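Changelog note: in this version the structure field was regenerated for every chain. One regenerated record is shown below for reference.
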Amino acid sequence: MAGRAHGAVMGTTHHTANPTWAEELLDHLRPNGRDPHRVVAWLAAAVAADVCLAEADGTPLAGRPVPADPALTADLATGRIAAAALEDHGRHLRLLRVTLPQRARAAVLTVARAAPFDRRAADIVTHTAGVLELLLRAHETAAAGRRLEQAASDLRLAILQLLMVEDTVSARRVAAGLWPGLLDTETACVYVAECRPEQRDRLAEACLDATGERALVVRCPAMDGHVIVVVPGETAADELRSLVDGRPGTFLGGSTRQSLARTATAYGQAVSALAVARFRSDRAALYAERTRPERLMDPGSLRDWTRTVLRPLDGLAHHVRAELLATTRLGLEFTAVNTAKVLGVSRNTVRARMDRVEGLLGADFSDLAGRAAVHLALNTQAGLGGTVHDPAAAGRTGLGDLLSGPAVRTWAHALLARLDADGRDLRGTLRAWIAAGGNAERAARRLGVHAQTVREHVRAAEPVLERQLLAAGSDLYEVVLAHLALGDLPEPALRTADRNNTDSAVHG
């Protein structure tokens, strides 16, 4: 038995009679090799022996267990000796200490064979131990790098989720640790890049390289092929737009500039723009600032109506109210499953929060008109900031009043009139489909047609109206508001309407 220190792999093999084994061993250091299991298997074949690489407690790392003296193995693992050679019951054994990287322990390479170890076999065992040490160190370094990348990715997602629920203070605090100054801004744009799911990691890396530390790059937790990028500055945005060039099958949608508190709104805009980008030759699109119905309403009346609609939430703790509002705003734009993934909660949590808001507001989220009304209130509330509320005006304005103005009615008529040119009565089908809560089967029964006909008509209306209808969101709610403005749908019931009716009964 002898102790010795063994080093790295030799630089030359001129002292061996046959250098072939050295070349084979070095091949295991090539990028497509580097597998300790393959190295141990190669060693077993090269010296005609049983080989095992195991931790001090006997846990195999590679190869099959080879019986050895536990005390000797412990001495090797603790560093008292570096190597040992002995004969045990007709077996010839070589044991070598293999240092495990970034750990307080070592592994033991045990080689047992019937014939004594000659110079060649001893050299092979010694140098193989060095190769195994290098491979284990490389694997640990790669694993540490992957853990670091995953931690950074998880942290970026956490920051995005904080922004989605309007907790900008916490988002800045979390970001400051690794990306100082990233969110030292009041506004940002959101971009969503889309590619095939198997290419997303490469696209995310390209986004990180293009934006450096000037943007928040997140692999979307809801859509496997999406990368979400929150861009506070302008330069990074320009570099991001150039990514789609030379990348077939990659698309990019971007939002308008929004306050950080409206990141969820900006995300919805980016997804909407992404749908447009799929049909453009340059495969990129920014959210179009077309005429919105809320911009045609009296601002003061809209603010007071919004505050009245959302007043039942005012008694909640601030963080609970913000959580409910942010979840509902996203839940009205996307499915409960996707909303849950974006926010990092369960879909049952999303539904529970939305059910609570639904109950507090007296709304019916199965009714598209009710969803459109609450969506209008939530989007208006997000932009209110510090505007002053007139208590005397509370309850005086209803949704019908907001939609009855000449500007809104003109907009609604011009929008829906586009459907009249089609001979299939797209307008009538769309009205029945909305009244049925977006359910094609129920609409078909009302119209006396097949459900597939309803779906085809709604799908045909999308390019005419230049709005997505089958995917619930802002586009659909605008079309619903247009129907309400023209009296084609009944005004939805909200808690404010109930309160006003009660007040009228009392004062009457």
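Spot check on this record: Confidence is low (pLDDT under 50) at residues 1-18, 497-508. The longest helix spans residues 119-164.
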